[in-house]
Inverse folding.
């Protein structure tokens, strides 16, 4: 009571001072209490924000981890098992573009003779990815593991070389197709130049460095008119961006050979065809259209001259690839430094027997037993060249390369595969 009275009616001036002091004190306490409350709130908010941010980064990291199609102990085990040779002195080969046409055939051939094979493919949608998945299943049934990834992914490549000391790289991953470069030029730079450099960087850094065999193209001869095309002919007049990126690849690989001692073999493939082929190529799309009763467009050159290609059957190409791997010398670098001169080679792999496009159509008509609806039109100026013809004497002498399948026989095998794969022989045409 007394305290209450004193508070309400102070009796002396001194007491007022004291009371004022108390009041200030109380105010200060209240103020301090509210400041510390604010401070605590601030701390709480900071802590909340920090934990939210770290949770977010955890979510990001873990989602990256979980969505990554490569990595982990099980994955490494699969890679090692697939890379293990099953013959003495067998190779361990990294095949890029393994779910592609040539990549699938080369991988199977290597596996069949007892080499270890690991595939790498980005399964892009340049053409029907379900065909690539079917090739992957075929490879898996032969014990070949295909990593889903891009040659532009340097971390993935470093990891692969970390897990397996590959003796060879068969580099077949590329943006293919001559005329598609008009539509999507960037994809050629991405795969055939940037991707190639990323791959070469990984090979340079690998210990041991692998020997590299890779796919160049007959298109590098461009506007060359001297026939048959020899490796020593001019290749500085490409007719398409595709050809230009392949030519650039030859120069880039030379640089890595020169500076880092990588053993390099470039193969100029001449219009490869056969079972499990590429749907974007003429023989494949002609077959599809002929069976579906749709017209095909047959290009002709100036003055209605027929176009011609040195069509080369896939089994012959595979033999050339294996011959190149077998004769490739070891790379000479280590720790990213060259220790001595390394092998650098370029070979034509063709059939050395050009056939005109109208003749190709006639052979298909015979095997399919269906007449094609031909529309003949002048070749548009979109990268095509009028003819190709390989001189293969260098490959014959140094790789033992000797093509044995002519277009008639090769297309017969292709048509047989096509009818079976797309279900024509069993229940009529699939709707494609
Ligand atoms: O050997 C090569 O270097 C190249 O061979 C083929 O390129 P290309 O010879 O143009 O093969 P296709 O696209 O199958 O064309 C073959 C022939 O058929 C002609 N053609 C193509 C498509 C079409 O609708 N009509 C047509 O008459 C082309 O002009 C060409 O003369 C591949 O597609 C390239 O990836 C490869 O690098």
């Amino acid at each position: 009571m007394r305290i209450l009275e004193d508070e309400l009616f102070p009796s002396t001036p001194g007491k007022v001072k004291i009371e004022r002091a108390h009041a200030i004190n109380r105010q200060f306490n209240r103020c301090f209490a509210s400041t510390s409350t604010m401070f605590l709130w601030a701390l709480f908010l900071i802590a909340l924000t920090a934990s939210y941010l770290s949770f977010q980064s955890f979510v990001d990291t873990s989602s990256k981890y979980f969505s990554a199609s490569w990595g982990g102990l099980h994955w490494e085990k699969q890679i090692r098992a697939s890379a293990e040779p099953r013959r003495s002195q067998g190779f361990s080969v990294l095949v890029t573009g393994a779910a592609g046409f040539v990549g699938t055939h080369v991988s199977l051939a290597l596996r069949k003779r007892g080499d270890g094979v690991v595939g790498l493919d980005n399964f892009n949608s340049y053409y029907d990815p379900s065909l690539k998945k079917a090739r992957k299943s075929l490879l898996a049934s032969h014990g070949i593991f295909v990593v889903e990834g891009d040659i532009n992914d340097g971390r993935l490549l470093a990891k692969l070389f970390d897990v397996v000391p590959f003796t060879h790289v068969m580099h077949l991953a590329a943006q293919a197709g001559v005329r598609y470069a008009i539509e999507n030029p960037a994809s050629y730079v991405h795969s055939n130049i940037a991707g190639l450099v990323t791959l070469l960087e990984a090979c340079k850094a690998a210990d041991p460095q692998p020997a590299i065999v890779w796919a160049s193209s007959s298109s590098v001869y461009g506007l060359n008119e001297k026939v048959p095309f020899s490796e020593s002919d001019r290749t500085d007049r490409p007719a398409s961006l595709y050809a230009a990126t392949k030519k650039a690849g030859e120069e880039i690989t030379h640089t890595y050979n020169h500076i880092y001692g990588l053993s390099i073999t470039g193969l100029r493939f001449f219009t490869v065809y056969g079972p499990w082929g590429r749907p974007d190529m003429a023989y494949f799309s002609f077959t599809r259209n002929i069976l579906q009763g749709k017209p095909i467009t047959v290009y002709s050159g100036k003055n209605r001259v027929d176009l011609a290609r040195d069509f080369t059957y896939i089994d012959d190409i595979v033999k050339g690839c294996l011959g190149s791997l077998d004769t490739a010398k070891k790379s000479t670098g280590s720790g990213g430094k060259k220790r001595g001169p390394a092998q650098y080679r370029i070979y034509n792999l063709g059939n050395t027997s050009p056939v005109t496009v109208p003749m190709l159509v006639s052979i298909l008509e015979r095997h399919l037993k269906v007449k094609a609806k031909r529309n003949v039109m002048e070749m548009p100026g979109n990268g095509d060249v009028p003819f190709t013809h390989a001189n293969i004497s260098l490959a014959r002498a140094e790789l033992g390369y000797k093509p044995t399948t002519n277009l008639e026989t090769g297309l017969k095998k292709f048509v047989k595969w096509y009818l079976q794969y797309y279900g024509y022989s069993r229940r009529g045409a699939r709707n494609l």
